[in-house]
Amino acid sequence: MAKQKKQPRPKAVTPKGFRDYRGVEVTRRADMLAKIARIYHLYGFDALETSAVETVEALGKFLPDVDRPNDGVFAWEEDGDWLALRYDLTAPLARVAAQYRNDLPSPYRRYQVGPVWRNEKPGPGRFRQFYQCDADTVGSASMAADAEICAMLSDVFEELGLGGDYIIRVNNRKILDGVMEVAGIAPDDERTRGIVLRAIDKLDRLGEDGVRALLGEGRKDESGDFTKGAGLSDAQIERLMSFVGANRLINETVEQEKSALTDRDDISPNETSLAYLADIVSGSETGRAGVDELRQIADLLAAQGYGPDRIVIDPSVVRGLGYYTGPVYEAELTFEITDEKGRPRQFGSVAGGGRYDDLVKRFTGQEVPATGISIGVDRLLAALEAKGRFDGVEDGPVVVTVMDKSRIADYQKMVTDLRKSNIRAELYLGNPKNFGNQLKYCDKRGAPFAIIQGDDEAARDVVQVKDLKLGARLASELSHEEWRDQPAQFEVPRADMVAEIAKRLG
Amino acid sequence: MAKQKKQPRPKAVTPKGFRDYRGVEVTRRADMLAKIARIYHLYGFDALETSAVETVEALGKFLPDVDRPNDGVFAWEEDGDWLALRYDLTAPLARVAAQYRNDLPSPYRRYQVGPVWRNEKPGPGRFRQFYQCDADTVGSASMAADAEICAMLSDVFEELGLGGDYIIRVNNRKILDGVMEVAGIAPDDERTRGIVLRAIDKLDRLGEDGVRALLGEGRKDESGDFTKGAGLSDAQIERLMSFVGANRLINETVEQEKSALTDRDDISPNETSLAYLADIVSGSETGRAGVDELRQIADLLAAQGYGPDRIVIDPSVVRGLGYYTGPVYEAELTFEITDEKGRPRQFGSVAGGGRYDDLVKRFTGQEVPATGISIGVDRLLAALEAKGRFDGVEDGPVVVTVMDKSRIADYQKMVTDLRKSNIRAELYLGNPKNFGNQLKYCDKRGAPFAIIQGDDEAARDVVQVKDLKLGARLASELSHEEWRDQPAQFEVPRADMVAEIAKRLG
């Protein structure tokens, strides 16, 4: 190949960080997304498909000081305008909500499924093009909109057969604001608020003591590096720790209540949480509003039959607190998987969302309240695969082999007959000379059966059927001698072929 | 708005030539594509989804002399590499077939559905992002592969409810090559061959006489402009005209045969065509091969039960003859629509394809035969809409209105009950103060029913149901007085609400 290098051949590769999806990778995702879309539709959400390309101006990523806006997006100049591939489905929703504000119903419930593109450093399992699946309600300030999103998400998991394997946690950004208020941290003290948010976000890793150190003077890690803290007073720290440790303290309370009661059904974890949170934000108007919003959501969900075993108030949900303005929600799958080091761990988060303002304001100047959820499509699909949802359901096609090139029409007729009975089937279309290649092809296709008809079979109007899955099992279980004696192959009259295959496929 | 122009607001618009799709525009297309994918899958075709972004090198659009490759594609430079959005689904297939050639089964049947992007001047109904839906078989030289594509396309139309409304026409590029050969036009005389191809392509518009003129000295059009012709001799022209006029001559022969026979079933239009074509390419090896390929396809399709009422040999299919190397096919919808000027015309072409070489050769140096079809997704969807396939099947959701803000949980419960019976339903999530706005919202949503429950109804445990579609019909048919006497509104016990709505929705 290197000898005649006049016109070098192009490299057959995807660009760095991109990939292709083949066969079941495509159809499993499509099936999952169709089920999700069915639930969204049932809830009155309307489909939306925005163009993949947006103006950089509409996306809001324009950096006036640089020649080229590439802050995480793929962008290029076209006739003097900067265009870019969308990096999420929320920015295009904002543009649509503004562009069609006179046409769209208000409130506007919409869902969108599709790829987004990020100009970021790719890594293992991290690609520059991936799917998102969002549902948002634009133009409603009602907590019923937030409760509905949580209920819908719960229905999605039930529809996907994940009942009992998920929990949706709900928190409210205003509660932390209230705690900061009663701790005496000024609303405009961005530096302290930033340190507090980052410290709380590290609770999982550092534990309560570590967070406490970061709220005070600072913390020295194992390597000896010192991180300067927020420098708050002990009283301030205790106020904040009542939020940081809320989940542990609430759980302890629930356990105490449980042990003091005979009828355990009387315990309401949500009531305990709400009472606890109302207590720690006592004196803050914002905090009170946050607790009130959480109570409204809890009451609405309880009235619809979504108990705390499915959707629960949980102050430990802090992800995205900085971005959202009211309720926030996060969905976790609770079943265990084995991680790459062989240790069991919970599958974890697959969806998150919350309430946000300023969606349309950038365009129109009018504030429009909105709330919504984004499902991590690849993570959810991986979860369904981990749960074995797709095991053994996707055979390849039945392959009709070609023994005699001059009788292609007869073989093709067999394929047609199979297809007419809704059996996925193929004629071998390669060069039929080497029959071994035909059987190798059947293997590669994952064919459950191969149909064979030579002159002898044709004369007797029968076909040979090779049960390839049984054959593979026999080959792995039996010695070569036994296997030769029990070939997974049988003869069937041509007229009975379709019925026999249909029966065996179940 | 113009007063405070410090930070001008971004414009909420799609880039020029792009558009969004909302509601049924998205779901109808998705439903149609799911039906097509079901047929493709049944035929053993595997799904493929390539990345939207390709290297310009792989796409084959690289222009070494210009700073920027923009020959019809959207392209940009990324870390020294030129990337571009795919402009069709065939170029990515070529890349995939080369990249995974050791993994893929051979032959490789694949289908792909998705958007493609063209950097072309947009026009009415012409957008820079649009859907394609392709199926190709890579690595098979067998005419059975071409016949299969035609049969599959026929099955697609049947699945979409277009039985009797379509015809798939098949031709072969080699026949025109054979005719040119016997007419004495050299294979390397690109200029003459180009003129001949362009002239034949104009048959519809210019008629046989116009084409004849272009094959000879040339032709003066109505405006007086003269187009220089190919300058062929009369004998050469007659040879070529035997191909140009083939369809008319074959049809005349079929009619003659029909009138000479009593049993019309004995007429085989395909046999007549093949005999005629064999005659006009007599003496050319290439032409003979083309006729032989057509005969193989016709025989295979006949054996599978696809008669010439569905798939027919038709020498008038010239579209794309320049690009393809063997069989070419084109699918037309034959029902009449009314064009923008009110004249009836056939709906026309919705899919086309054929056999092509050099698919993978660019990358690997190895020739790989391939054949495939591309469906014009937007045209086919428009056809289904023109046929009324979607009439009256897509109501909006049932809307539960809010009469008393403090009873949201009760209203939400009604919505939940409806959804549990698979009835699409919504709670009104806007500000409930103005009830008129709630009814306007119902209209905008296309709601079939609105549910109303005020204090009085709640006390009696009933709901009012407004039949909005009946109401709209009554309002258009009756005078205001009659309409007021027959309001399309009825009362139903709360416990019977879901069953009553389900019954009325059918």
Automatic annotation (TrEMBL), chains A, B:
GO terms for molecular function: ATP binding; histidine-tRNA ligase activity. The keyword Protein biosynthesis applies. GO terms for biological process: histidyl-tRNA aminoacylation. Gene3D superfamilies: Anticodon-binding domain (3.40.50.800), Bira Bifunctional Protein, Domain 2 (3.30.930.10). One of its GO terms (cellular component) is cytoplasm. Its EC number is 6.1.1.21. Its main location: cytoplasm. It comes from the Bacteria. Residues 32-397 form the Aminoacyl-transfer RNA synthetases class-II family profile domain. It is an enzyme of class 6 (ligase). CDD domains: HisRS-like_core (cd00773), HisRS_anticodon (cd00859). It is found in: Cytoplasm. L-histidine binds at D88, L89, T90, R118, Q132, D136, R319, Y323, Y324. It catalyses: tRNA(His) + L-histidine + ATP = L-histidyl-tRNA(His) + AMP + diphosphate + H(+). Homodimer. Belongs to the class-II aminoacyl-tRNA synthetase family. NCBIfam families: hisS (TIGR00442). This is Histidine--tRNA ligase.
